[in-house]
Amino acid sequence: MKSSKAINWLLICVMCWATVGCKSVTMKEKKLSYLGDKDHLEHYKDEVTSIEYTEVAHCTPDEVKFTQEPRTIRDRKHDEIWDLSLTEALHLALKNNRVIRTDGSFMNSTEAITNQNASSVYDPAIQETGVLFGGRGVEAALSDFDANFTTSMLWGRNNEIVNSPFFGGTPGGNLTRETGAFRAGVSKQFATGGSFALRNDWDYSGTNASGQLFPSAYTGNVRGELRQPLWARSGTEYTRIAGPGGAGFSGVTGVSQGVSIARINNDITVADFELSVIDLLRDVETVYWQLYLDYHRYHTVVTARNSALESWRNAKLKLDIGGISGFKLVDEAQARDLLFQRRSDAATSLGDLYSREIRLRRLLGLSVNDGRVIRPVDEPVEAEFIPEWYGNLVEALTNRVEIRKQKWSIRSLELQHIAAQSLTNPQLDFVSSYQVNGFGDQLWGLGSDDDAANTNSGLRYGMERITQGDETGWTAGVELSMPIGFRSAKAQVRNYELRIAKSREQLAVLELEISHELAVAIQKVHSNYIAAREDFSRRKAARRRVELYEAEVDAGTSTLDPLLRAQSSLAEAEVAFYTSLVDYNLALLDLQYRKGTVLEYDNVYLSEGSWTPAAYRQAVRRAWARTYAIENPHLHSEPGEFAQSESYPRYIDVARPETRETEPSLKSKSSVEESEGPTEVPPAIEADSPQVKAPLENKTSQLPRANRLETELPDEFNLDFSNAFEEKPKFEQVQFLKEEPFAPTRRNSSEIPDFED
User: In this predicted model, which residue has the larger pLDDT, 435 or 69?
Assistant: First the structure.
């Protein structure tokens, strides 16, 4: 009975609790009232993550804010012509490209510009001032040897009940302790791997406990500590490569945090920046000559369009009068078809020209449209240039920045390998310390030496006891620590050995790759020049063909179809000639690029910005001091010198045929003998008059022609093109930007076929 009542009461309690709980969940929130009047709700967010925009203090460049709309083929504006030379274009590119851009990255992604790895003029300075692991600059590496000062001062007070008289008080009484601690010290790291520290410590103690000589006293010391590695991590060589010793973060830092490695990293960064500048100059010159080609291509297309227009007019006139001898009805339709094709070609060519000008403006750091149209004013090289293989190979192996960068990487790995070998030894350190102790009722003062306890021992001032140096202490000994087996250290050494082997093999492959690149570049120089000469003869023959067919059509002995085909062939020959000429100049540029002499070729020299005048004065003072210093034959540099004292590269010689022994299996089977070539230039001959056995001559060779094989071409190809480039049209003849290129001639508009027709 009692149990059932208990159960009923328990059920009633549970139901009441559930009812209260439900009510608390469904209970309405209280209405809140606020002071003030607001029209709408603010600061309410129903989401955590969303797209937001930051506030950055940035001023949009004037080249973007004040630029005009881009130029299109529909524009009829007469913009000013800007005759831009190649030298001025290179100057503008170097001046306006603080973040270096490339032509290949255009219209692909802006990530190449905003990427943190994008090359810029700030990169050498960023590396020089780097502080992070793997990117430390020289200043950050030298900071490890800066003196480090630390100090601290703490006060304290403690009250407690004494439970035992052995703690210096009456049982049940109150024991009060006052404390103070002062710490100060200077530590310095040495290039030998050792460290020295000078410290001054003072402790204050005041208490009401019995049995004390002084109720308050100062205890302190001046202490000097010295630690010097004797085996692993010892010596200036290791310290300047890996940085000061210490096992902290060794798996992250490795042995690459020293001054020497930081210096090499700076040189590698400068090499990367130089490569970016070379690529920029190459792209600027390439786009410059491509724009030159676009101008001539457009000139050719416009000329072909005008010729097609004239041919259609003649055909239309003959059709209107009922036809003449040799005229067919299809001739007018064919002429109309060709006219529309040429008009389309002209529109496409002009659009390509405007697009190319935009690409050049981008590389030069100019606005999209400043009211001027860039027109290349320099003429491409027309003279034949015969490069000498061995001299160019020596220049390539000497001047290519990629080789210099790879050699710096190898030197860095070699130094790190030396430091890694040091870690395969036990860590044996010599440690020592010496200190002078002090004790006194007071810290310092100028009064009598009598203390409060009348000890007659001069214990009144603690500072004075230290200066007397009566209480001293010292320690000396060695510390040894080593992992059993040195597995990690030996694995690191092996890793560097493999990385050095890989880097050296990469250097060998790189040199081989450069030789192949140079060979192809030389081949292109020869082939593009020959192609330009042949295309010139083709153009001349195509002009003659057009003249003959025009005479036949006028005489009525031929139809219009051969003339239209001849005109098309002439337009193709004109474009092919200027394409070959530009390709020849681009081949010369590529030859300089493969040799690594683009900067010298363009008269560009890299140097750092100006320092403050005080820095130059200090440098001069130190230079004079070293100049008059006495040479010490016992001094040597650790690690050894890894940079040349000269400011120019040392040439790498290659074995020439006359200086090397030819292997029997490598002897040439050719019967052609080497010669220095003719000493006189043969007289000029007509371009379209085949001559028998006329040797190809170099009239403007800029390099020695030693070791060049003189060969003879077949009779039908032995032509002298000394006058090949005399009939080249000038830019002054291209008037398409001063008139409406697609506007009808000022005649009756009904005479011109429209697109709707």
Answer: 435
DSSP H helices in 97-221: 111-114, 123-128, 138-142
Inter-residue contact 716 to 678 (CB < 8 Å): no
Classify residue 751 by burial, with Cβ atoms within 10 Å: 0-12, 13-18, 19+.
Answer: middle
Torsions phi, psi of 345, nearest 5? -60, -40
Tell me the C-alpha distance between 207 and 346, whole Å.
104
Give the domain ranges of the chain.
Answer: 80-126+265-376, 150-236+427-481, 389-413+489-601
CATH 1.10.150.240 assigned to domain 389-413+489-601? The reply is: no
**Cβ–Cβ < 8 Å for 433, 474:** yes
- Within a 10 A sphere around the Cβ of 429, how many other Cβ atoms? 22
Q: What is the Cα–Cα distance from 121 to 200, expressed in whole angstroms?
A: 48
Identical fold at 80-126+265-376 and 389-413+489-601? Answer: yes
**Which amino acid belongs to residue 486?**
F
pLDDT tens digits, residue range 400-437? 999 999 999 999 999 999 999 999 999 999 999 999 99
Burial of 632 (0-12, 13-18, 19+ CB in 10 A): exposed
Structure tokens at 476: 């000396």
Pick the CATH number of 80-126+265-376 from 1.20.1600.10, 3.40.50.1970, 1.10.10.10, 3.40.190.10: 1.20.1600.10
Largest CA distance in the chain: 147
Between β-strands 80-84 and 372-376, what pairing exists: parallel, antiparallel or unpaired?
Answer: parallel
Phi and psi dihedrals of 93, rounded to 5? -65, -45
What one-character-per-residue DSSP string does 434-465 give?
A: EEEEEEESBS--SS-S--TT--SS--SBHHHH
Residue 32: HSE in the Cβ half-sphere, 13 Å Cα cutoff: 4
pTM: 0.76
Q: What is the CA radius of gyration of the chain?
A: 44
Cβ-contact 722, 382 below 8 angstroms: no
